[in-house]
């Protein structure tokens, strides 16, 4: 019995080193890793990325709409608003995070403040351009029909401004989806987390999977906004005969 044990090979346990593809240093992409890590890594990061984007675009849209409406009624406000929102837009994301951290800490709030600030210039200019682009004769006709300024805004100006508004909304949404990956430096949420992890480990599968999901999310969001625009403004479609 002693001889048998002496001649036995040492047992080296396999602590989940993954499939042959994952152990291959030359492998570019391993579907097996995606399947094994979808539920605990990629899916949660994707859902967090969607939440980050929805919050930023939602708050940014509300602020930009209010500012654009004020500038539409009082034209002198347009220039200072463009200057302020343009200044925020030019601040590098990492620098803005650094400026906010002493006040709001390493939290989602810090990430959202930065993301919202990058939507304001895009949304403000498009909403204002859409409202300002309504022909004067259309406004005069609406007033001649007895419409109040509130009715003119909601029944005439906003419907005609929808194409410009949605154009800005599409650009802002895609921008936020892209920039939300940088939020990983202040909060471990979104697709930036697996991307950053993959860069540290030089693991191409996780990098390509998370990056691909980010691109796919941007494309899907843009397509959904186009469909929503067509659904609520059928008169803006180009009719081909």
Walk me through this protein's architecture.
- With 241 residues, this protein is mainly α.
- The chain is built from ten helices and no strands.
- The chain has one domain (38-230): MetI-like fold, CATH 1.10.3720.
- The protein is elongated and about 75 Å long.
- The model is unreliable at 1-7 and 10-16 (pLDDT under 50).
Q: What is the total number of structural domains?
A: 1
Strand content: under 5%
DSSP summary: helix tally: 10
Head-to-tail CA distance between termini: 91 Å
At CATH level 2, the architecture is Orthogonal Bundle
Order of helices and strands: HHHHHHHHHH
Chain-averaged pLDDT: 85
**Secondary-structure content class:** mainly alpha
Query: Helical percent range?
Result: over 70%
* Low-pLDDT residue intervals, each spanning 5 or more residues: 1-7, 10-16
For the structure shown, list the relevant keywords.
mainly alpha; elongated; MetI-like fold; membrane; 241 residues; 76% helix
Summarize the structure.
Residues 46-226 form the ABC transmembrane type-1 domain. This protein is mainly alpha-helical and 241 residues long. The chain has helices spanning 2-7, 20-23, 31-73, 78-90, 93-104, 108-132, 136-144, 149-179, 192-201, 204-232.
């Amino acid at each position: 019995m002693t001889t048998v044990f002496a001649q036995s090979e040492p047992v080296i346990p396999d602590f989940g080193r993954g499939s042959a593809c994952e152990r291959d240093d030359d492998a570019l992409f391993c579907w097996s890793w995606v399947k094994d890590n979808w539920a605990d890594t990629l899916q949660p990061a994707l859902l967090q990325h969607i939440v980050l984007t929805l919050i930023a675009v939602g708050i940014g849209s509300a602020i930009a709409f209010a500012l654009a409406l004020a500038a539409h009624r009082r034209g002198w406000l347009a220039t200072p608003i463009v200057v302020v929102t343009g200044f925020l837009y030019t601040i590098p994301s990492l620098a803005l995070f650094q400026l906010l951290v002493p006040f709001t800490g390493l939290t989602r709030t810090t990430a959202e403040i930065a993301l919202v600030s990058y939507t304001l210039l895009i949304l403000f200019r498009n909403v204002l351009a859409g409202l300002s682009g309504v022909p004067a004769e259309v406004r005069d006709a609406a007033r001649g029909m007895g419409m109040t300024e509130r009715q003119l805004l909601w029944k005439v100006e906003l419907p005609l401004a929808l194409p410009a508004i949605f154009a800005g909304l599409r650009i802002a949404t895609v921008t936020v989806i892209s920039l939300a990956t940088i939020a990983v430096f202040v909060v471990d949420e979104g697709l930036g987390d697996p991307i950053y992890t993959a860069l540290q480990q030089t693991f191409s599968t996780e990098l390509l999977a998370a990056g691909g999901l980010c691109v796919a999310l941007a494309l899907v969001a843009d397509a959904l906004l186009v469909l929503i625009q067509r659904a609520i403004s059928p008169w803006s479609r180009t009719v081909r005969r």
